[in-house]
Amino acid sequence: MANHPSAEKRNRQRITRTARNRAIKSSLKSTLKKARSAIESGEANAKELVLSAERALARAASKTAAKAR
Question: What is the pTM of this model?
Answer without folding.
Answer: 0.73
